[in-house]
Every structure is written in C-alpha cells, then in structure tokens.
From TrEMBL:
This is DNA-3-methyladenine glycosylase I. InterPro entries: Adenine_glyco (IPR005019), DNA-3mA_glycosylase (IPR052891), DNA_glycosylase (IPR011257). Its EC number is 3.2.2.20. Signal peptide: none annotated. One of its GO terms (biological process) is base-excision repair. The gene is tag. GO terms for molecular function: DNA-3-methyladenine glycosylase activity; metal ion binding. Zn(2+) binds at C4, H17, H175, C179. PANTHER family: DNA-3-METHYLADENINE GLYCOSYLASE 1, DNA-3-METHYLADENINE GLYCOSYLASE I. Keywords: Glycosidase, Hydrolase, Metal-binding, Zinc. It comes from the Bacteria.
Amino acid sequence: MGICDWANVNEKMKVYHDCEWGVPVYDDTVLFEYLVLELMQSGLSWNTILQKRETLKAAYANFNYEVLADCGPEEADKIMTCEGIIRQRSKIKAVFQNARALKKIRREFGSFSDYLWSYTKGKVYVYKSHEKLGVPAANELSTTVAVDLKKRGFVFLGPVTVYSHLQACGIIHDHASSCPAGEIIRRTAPFIYREDM
C-alpha cells in the first residue's frame, strides 16, 4: 500500500499530501485558505486547484479574510480579469460572503479554529470503517457542520465540501493506515477512534 493512492498524480499533489493534508491546523488564515480552495474545487479536480493555488492566493489577497470581508462587486470584477483563476462570479462572491461569516464566528468563539475543533472537542477523528469500506463523500459530522455554517451565513459549503475541509485541516484523519505521512500525524495528534462512518 504505502502512500495514499490519490497523492501519486504529480509532485505538487505528493507534496501537498505529505506536508499539509491531514496535519491538524489551528491558524484561522490557513483554515480559511483551505475553505476557499475546497469551495473553488467544486466541480473540478483537486489537482487543478493545486496547480492554480498560487494564482488564487495572489487574486484573493493571500486568503486574508479581513481584507476579503470588505470586498464587493468592484473587487469581484477585478478578480474576474485575473489570469489563471477559476472565473465563476458566484464562487468569488461566496469567498467574500464566507470571509464575513468567518469574522462573525471569530467574534462569537474567539477563533474559527476554536469553532471547528469544538465539534470533536479538540480531537482528531479516525473512522475505523473507512479503511475497509472506503472513505465516504460526506458523513454525519460534515453534515452537522455544514448545516450550522449555512445558518451562520456561509455559502457554497455543503456536507461534501465540508468533509473535504475537515480532512484537509486534520479534524478527520483519512490517511491510509500504511501511509508514512499519516503515521507521522498519528504519532503526534490527539486521536479518537470512531466506530461510525
């Protein structure tokens, strides 16, 4: 087995897998970056998003939610002219809206990180069934988080997108048991093994 199968596409995918994917994240700017990338990925391959990541970072103010929360139609028009980005106005507007919603969560919870990790009480969830039955597109946790995010004003974030985000930021651990990158995380992160999906 070894490394997770999906990471063997190209060097960028492998580096992302080895150094970022599933590593617990507590920094709100990084969490927001992952959220934007997952939002942009909807309907596209993850490889496409990683290839465009630096271009997206430049177009979206280094994923600075403070800056993006103040953006409106003029900034959307400007982003639409950028080369190499995903030119979908609804996604651009969603980034601005989600930045505003994130700021509200920070006011209530202290940080977006505290909000997200509160769902697992600071623990990383490992679902025992995923190794045998396969990783689902969404689960009860991602659905619960997605529903609450929607209530709080977030858009373009259904259970599937939220599941991918929870994987990326390390709240759900879906590295293969034989994966060396996953083993490093499992040695250091606070885990809870789950029997459900």
